[in-house]
Write a structure and sequence with these properties.
Helices cover 68% and strands 0% of the residues. Helix 4 packs across helix 5. By secondary structure, it is mainly alpha-helical. It starts with a helix and ends with a helix. It is built from 7 helices and no strands.
C-alpha cells in the first residue's frame, strides 16, 4: 500500500478543522466593529507670507555667502601673491632663455624672429645665453 492510503486508514478522511456556522456572513461586520474610527481629514493651514518666502530667502542668503567667500579668497590671494609683472621681470632677470621657452605660445619660426629682433648682433646674444653655461 501507499503511505497515503495507510494514513487515511489510520486517521480517516475527516478534516480536523471546521469553519463555524455563519462565519463568512458576519465577518465584515465584526471586522468593521473592531477597527478604530477613521480620523477626520486635517484642515489645511494657511501659510503666512514669511513661511512661503523663507526657502527663497535662505537660498539667496546661501548664494550671497558663497559670493562673499569668493571675494575674500580672491582678495587674500591677490594680496599674498606678487604681481604678474614682477614675476615676469624676475623670470627675465633670472634666465631669459627659460622665460622665452616657458612663456612662448607661437611656433619655432616666430620665436626665432623675435630673438633676432631682440639681439641684432651675436655678441649680445652670447653674453645673455652663453655666459650661464
Amino acid at each position: 500500500m501507499r503511505s497515503e492510503d495507510i494514513l487515511k486508514e489510520k486517521y480517516g478522511k475527516k478534516v480536523p478543522f471546521e469553519v463555524p456556522e455563519d462565519y463568512f456572513n458576519t465577518l465584515k461586520s465584526n471586522v468593521m466593529k473592531s477597527l478604530p474610527e477613521y480620523p477626520e481629514k486635517p484642515k489645511q493651514v494657511k501659510l503666512s507670507r514669511w513661511q512661503r518666502l523663507k526657502p527663497y530667502v535662505y537660498l539667496a542668503a546661501m548664494f550671497a555667502g558663497i559670493w562673499c567667500m569668493m571675494q575674500v579668497f580672491h582678495h587674500v590671494s591677490s594680496v599674498n601673491s606678487p604681481k604678474t609683472e614682477e614675476i615676469s621681470f624676475a623670470n627675465l632677470e633670472a634666465d631669459p632663455y627659460d622665460y622665452y621657452i616657458d612663456n612662448y605660445m607661437g611656433n619655432d619660426l616666430e620665436l626665432e624672429d623675435e630673438v633676432i629682433s631682440l639681439y641684432p648682433n651675436m655678441d649680445d646674444f652670447k653674453r645673455d645665453f652663453y655666459a650661464q653655461l
